[in-house]
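Task: complex structure prediction.
Instruction: return structure tokens for all chains below.
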Amino acid sequence: MSNLLANLNEQQHQAVTLPSQHALILAGAGSGKTRVLTTRIAWLVQSGQASPAEILAVTFTNKAAKEMHARLAAMLPINTRSMWIGTFHGLCNRLLRAHHRDAGLPQLFQILDSGDQLAAIKRLLKTLNVDDEKFPPRELQHFINGQKEAGFRPHAVEAWDEFTRQRVQLYQEYEAQCQRESVVDFAELLLRTYELLERNEPIRRHYQRRFRHILVDEFQDTNVLQYRWLKLLADEGREGGASLFCVGDDDQSIYRFRGAEVGNMRDFEREFRVQNVIRLEQNYRSRGNILDAANAIIRNNSDRLGKNLWTDQGAGEPIRVFEAFSDADEARWLVDEVRGLVRDGALRSEIALLYRSNAQSRVLEHQLFTAGVPYRVYGGLRFFERQEIKHALAYLRLIANPDDDTAFARVVNFPTRGIGARSLEALQDAARTYNTSLYATVPHLSGKAGTVLAQFVRLVEDLRRDTARLPLPELIDHVLDASGLRAHYKSEKEGQERLENLDELLGAGSNFVAEAQADAEVLAGDHALLADFLAHASLEAGDHQADQGADAVQLMTVHSAKGLEFNVVFVSGLEEGLFPHENSILEAEGLEEERRLMYVAVTRARERLYLSFAQSRMLHGQTRYNLRSRFLEEIPAGLVKWLTPPNPRSMAGGALAGMGGGYFKPGASVAPVAARQARGTSAHLPNGLRIGQSVAHAKFGQGVIVAAEGSGSDAKVQINFGPAGVKWLLLAVAKLEPV
DNA sequence: CTCGCGAGTTTTTTT
DNA sequence: AACTCGCGAG
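Output:
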């Protein structure tokens, strides 16, 4: 036990050894949060205060759950399998499988990922003949998920206006469709489990008695429903309920957009009368300059719980800032810098290239590829989201659950077997009349459509029969052949990679079996393991990226970098409109979340931090001219070393060609010209103004002309004023001074 | 019914 | 720039 607690600082020690009461640990970036959480669990078990079966630990990513499990297994000499460690979604899946009857679900229910859900909504709109212009599927998806995450079933939604009433109606239809098809989306996993526990007292009591210690990681990212779920399990904080140990950092809350509610931290403190609030402020990760910059940035946010990170590791190097002429220029510089670091002995895997949005990775990848630097991109298209994998999974899903209409619709005519829109329409209509799934409706259909569809149904039945006794990998292998998927991709010109991915699916199957056997908790019955595998595929979209072990530069969004750390970090694209993102700039809440994102980005670095931005950038096929990010101005000048001459005139003026620090190569295209051509506007506006030109406005301050429209007295220009926003101004009216 | 082309739209972030 | 969707020819 003593060695368990060795090397903990005072606050960490205090947190780990708190009595079994509710506790809130405010853990700053790099302050040893994961260590405290895992050591706490180990300490509880080792000191005899809790048995492993009494522990429930909730994380946000599967990766974090796995890591926690591994660390605990290393710390404790006993079997840790009886602990429940997982993501909210993973744990809910487990509960719903165990109590599927009480939850009103068949045992082999399927899980819809976001893409599946969107497809299901589109299909719903089509069958109901709803105008998808008026109800854009994406928007509806967002609406439905939002309601579920707030805990509202359709009848509970307050709809004051006609539009909302109609959307609620669609929400209800969507629910009915899901129930009919035995499928469950992400939000439904949570809501369904919550309702199960709320309504079923014996089950609720059972779990309340079982879990004496509930520990939550990344508590700042919980949404309303997740918090209520935790409260329910902890018996609302009543005497005799479990003790809740929540670890989080309000400054790192970056998922507000998908319903995360930082307010949960304050609510928790109040509602559970939390006596133990501990701040972990000593940072073991970053050098002083980096930390000072992070502190200075986050200080601009209001309404924080308050925390200031410090380190005893010394100031370290200054933060390097680079201004590029264009995004390509930025990428070239960046790759050169990376090569220099590697030449000096740095590990590529210790260098991270961070950006705000996935679209930005393209330029970086291009330059890395050209320079022959090995790299690895996180995020983007995940393994289980590739179309060929989705197709294969759809066949597997039909085997496990033929009523899954989403899966049915996906592969009924893939590979093409002469079942067109006509036949499908007839089938959909019939399915509505009989109120059965597409699959179950097929026998009701006569005529030509009936014949081809019956053939497809027979194919699926054969698949089910022939695979009933097969181990998972062989099962998948058989399906790939018998469905015709392999043959189809073999004949396709670009199909080679897809074939390889399909083979990799076999590998994923084998891995899953190996892990499931170790886990021992496998469902009984035919194809039950298959259902487990499919749930796994939905919940864990797959970090199946190339060459885990290879020494490669790491590329990812700031979001996916959360929780990670690197010796060297580059944050690129620090421009107004990009980071902070233009969609978030207008409301204060959104801007503060962007700032937390910046805080997360900066605190990923241990030794060296680079920040860069470009005067012009290709986005959506158009050249845009951005001002440099306000977050750069929030870093005290004394911490910064400019690699390019500081450009005080404003922030990046696009018209100021040649300001790329001399890095801009002769012959590189001049972005303003490209923009003019792309937009088809006149090359020169009156008064010598042009696109990319920096201008000053009496009220809005400095800005950059990003677009122009019309001519003569109608001539308008769009100007990005940074903090003051992006505005269209009439040239005839607005007083603009070139800068 | 299938395939190919062109128009139109998109993108912030993800369990 | 890349992807999706709808339309028309075969």
